[in-house]
Amino acid sequence: MKCFYYLLGLTFLFSFLILYSPWTSEPTNNLTFRQSFPLPKEDFCDLSSGHWVRDLRGSQYTNESCSSIPETKNCFKYGRKDTDFLKWRWKPDNCELPRFDPRIFFDIVKGKTMAFIGDSVARNHVESLLCLLSLVEVPLSTYRDDDDRFRTWHFPENNFTVMVLWTRFLVMGEERIINGKNSDSFDLHLDKLDKNWTSKLPEMDYAIISDVHWFYRRHFLHDNENMIGCIYCSEPNIKSYTVEFALERVIRLVLNYINECKECKSLVTLLRTGSPAHFENGAWNTGGNCNRTSPFQESEISLEGIEWRLRNMQVDEIKRASKVKKKGKRFAILDVTKAMLMRPDGHPDSHWDDKWMKGYKDCVHWCMPGPIDAWNDFLMAVLKRYAPISIPRKISE
Ligand SMILES: *[C@@H]1O[C@H](CO)[C@@H](O)[C@H](O)[C@H]1NC(C)=O
Ligand SMILES: *[C@@H]1O[C@H](CO)[C@@H](O)[C@H](O)[C@H]1NC(C)=O
Ligand SMILES: *[C@@H]1O[C@H](CO)[C@@H](O)[C@H](O)[C@H]1NC(C)=O
Ligand SMILES: *[C@@H]1O[C@H](CO)[C@@H](O)[C@H](O)[C@H]1NC(C)=O
Ligand SMILES: *[C@@H]1O[C@H](CO)[C@@H](O)[C@H](O)[C@H]1NC(C)=O
Q1: Is 219 a residue of the active site?
Q2: 291 CA closest ligand 5 atom index
Q3: Which of 18, 74, 256, 300 could bridge across to 296 with cysteines, CB 3.0–4.6 Å?
Q4: pLDDT band for position 207 (50/70/90)?
Q5: DSSP bridge partners of 92
Q6: What is the pLDDT of residues 7-39, one digit of tens each?
Q7: Cis (ω within 30 of 0) for the bond into 369?
Q8: Do residues 362 and 71 touch, judged by C-beta distance below 8 A?
Q9: Pocket-testing residue among 120, 166, 196, 197, ligand 4, by greatest number of atoms within 8 A of Cβ
């Protein structure tokens, strides 16, 4: 039932986010494009601005080489037949984004602890990272709570620890129970962080924070013990706020807290921007699906919706936190929103273990392997920029 509940929660209200873009021809860029491109200094390259180009090498792992792909994302096991969606790579306009290399990654993170903090899409990201790292070393599972929301894995040979810490809102939120039933509406405390993840902060060297999906519903906002208003509601005598307002408050609180954290190490914090859903022909609960087999082109996506506004807000908040940068803390953005807006073809659709949600399509999470693996290309590139100088950078073959 857990699975059902999470997915139900996540997908609720995604009807707002349907892409109506018409489908035209396939992007024409191919690999010859790459050789003709000069490589400017990495620091000046905006990784998020680019497009998907053909890469016939396909994915680095399969559902045979990676035994930890969850049933809900093992699309090939559940009948997905097309494989073309694996044959693209993200090409930033002004540089190259190198392919994830587990050896280089381990060189950067040896002896360190990395935590992914967020909802089930953050979990999807970790799962992709584990499959890519398993090409070199299979991790040991060292902690798992009863609900499988909090987990830790350790790679003994590389002395690297990965955690996933589940949090809906990053701040405290309690669901309103109405007539004994979950109402899907929460009381959010914009000034109180969720200790489920903050208590682990001192252990971390890298924190990868994300959270957007759970904000897209009817919530009551509290500040300093007072209810100040609500989002997605129109109730008399209650002030209406936008999702941007609530999420900005939360992100700012999180980043300030990290900046001020005295028990923390010289933490590197990455904020991963929102991952779009792609329901078409309906919403998640009215028969919506996502059965495309190729990416959108830039002309087919919209940079006007709420997802893009939230992404812009997150970029601004990271800039703000970087200016403060107390006690050696570093901040960067893992800016995947635009790349993922272009990947309606990367979701499970009907190809997942839907035993708790018979017949529903998943257009929120991502197939594995699939375009979500590119998030780890982004991650490796960003870590290389922000890795402490003292870390040995011997690049293995
Ligand atoms: C790749 O692109 C180049 C230049 O646009 C073109 O000449 C070539 O035919 C393309 N190759 C393939 C395999 O599409
Ligand atoms: C991997 O996918 C194939 C279909 O491509 C499927 O037949 C097989 O059962 C899957 N294996 C595992 C271990 O999931
Ligand atoms: C693993 O990393 C931790 C933290 O940096 C360090 O204290 C420990 O000595 C390392 N263990 C080994 C076996 O290298
Ligand atoms: C913290 O984790 C516990 C155990 O999973 C859970 O019951 C609680 O709701 C979580 N707190 C928040 C604010 O989500
Ligand atoms: C994709 O879904 C649409 C709407 O449900 C359907 O009309 C179409 O035939 C599907 N395409 C494929 C390739 O299955």
Answers
A1: no
A2: 1
A3: 300
A4: very high
A5: 50
A6: 433 443 332 332 222 233 333 333 333 333 333
A7: yes
A8: no
A9: 196
Cβ–ligand 5 contact at 294 (below 6 Å): no
Residues 352, 357, 359, 362: is their CA dihedral positive or negative? negative
Cα gap 247→240, rounded to integer Å:
14
Q: What is the model's pLDDT at position 44?
A: 65
Q: Is the confidence at residue 390, as pLDDT, over 60?
A: no
Distance CA 107, CA 391 (A): 8
Q: Is 390 a catalytic residue?
A: no
CB 230 within 8 A of CB 200: no
In the chain, the amino acid numbered 263 is E
Could you tell me the two tokens for 357?
Answer: 């949600």
CA of 184 to the centre of ligand 2 (A): 35
User: Which pLDDT tens digit goes with each residue over 53-96?
Assistant: 999 999 999 999 999 999 999 999 999 999 999 999 999 999 99
Q: Give phi and psi for 208, each to the nearest 5.
A: -115, 110
Please give the distance, rounded to the nearest whole angstrom, from the Cα atom of residue 29 to the centre of ligand 1.
7
Q: Please spell the DSSP secondary structure of 289-333, one letter per residue.
A: B----SPPPGGGS-SSSHHHHHHHHHHHHHHHHHHH-GGG-EEEE
Q: Is the CB of 15 under 6 A from ligand 2?
A: no
3-state secondary structure of 95: coil
